[in-house]
Design a protein that fits this description.
Shape: globular
Number of helices: 12
Strand content: 5-15%
CATH class: Alpha Beta
Structural class: alpha+beta
Number of strands: 9
Oligomer: single chain
Order of helices and strands: EEEHEHEHHHEEHEHEHHHHH
Helix content: 25-40%
CATH topology: Creatine Kinase, Chain A, domain 2
Largest sheet: 7 strands, antiparallel
Length: 389
Amino acid sequence: MNTFGNYFFEGGFGLERETLRIGKNGRLAQTPHPFDDPHLQRDFCENQLEIITGVNNSVKNAIAELAEWDLTARKKLAESSEHLHIYSNPPNFLDASEIPVAHSGMEMSKFNYRKQLEQKYGKHMMLYSGIHFNFSLSENYLSEIKDIGQEFGQFKDSVYFRLMKQIFRHSWLIVLLTAASPIYDRSFVEAGSSGRAFSGYGSMRNSEFGYWNQFIPTLDYSDIESFTDSIQGYIDDGFLLSPAELYLPVRLKPKGTYSLDALKNGIDHIELRMFDLNPLSDVGIFSEDAEFAHLLMLYLLHLPDFDFTAKLQEKAVYDHKAAAKYMPAQHYIDKAKAIITEMKQFFDGYVYAEKVLEYQRRKLIENQRYCVKIYERSWEPCANYSVQV
């Protein structure tokens, strides 16, 4: 049995959930954002709500807070006969005119930035909704494992930097286990159409048709200075509008407002951006999946560091998209089982970890991934209608 010290499992946990507002006609709501609370913000479009929790001391508490804000939002929306669409793919809509870029109560610079995104990617892609899982390691734990004489800030940055490389390389595993959006409405790819269709993917937003840049960014992972400089290089060359446009599944975050200068001054936490909204859960995510992401990061921290070359970065993106298929290649299933087995050995003796890992293993051995359950429960005869974008 491994012993991990007093603070290994501790940390800070937060969730951000994007959700579209639906009007009483069953279409995208065309009303202004109705909330005035920092926990209930608008996202890209005026009818896309983002629920943002605070920092909690456990996954359980983060999900409990998400549930509280979800209930608050639903009660307010019910007053105008609106509700929330707990599904990553959007509902039926006529055309782009029903996707108003968020504007009310916003700084003009943010509005202009979103208009630039509209011109670059189109509005449709911005309708994808998902959950971002934010995690910070316990500073007591970091102090416990830091060598005497090491500067704490530099050591902390190096740990997060190493973790980011590992989780990016393994992001496909989370996609494989949490994909939950195999069905979409045909209006998403063909204006004026309607009716459910099967995409061929377990998760459209994580697939090749998902939320990605128009190129594969390859960054310099030598250190935080080189990393931020390589992002700035894409901005200077006109490939990115800002650091926020870097659409990768993992992001390092500073404390406060996200900027490259703030990131250079210290990493505060890591953000995992690949979770689908899960319609099988009342709040869009099961605790077992967020707990698994936490355990995976702790496990990956103990793997050897490596040189994250451009070739490996491109492969990580390829694997991420490949794992988003409804029927991913068998070697991804086999590799996922092997990693879960290794994690069971790593966390041997910790009952809570054993339960979480067994929950994930059963998805694979019983072919009960969420996307399969959703397909089987919601499907009516309109199969074999694949995405054509």
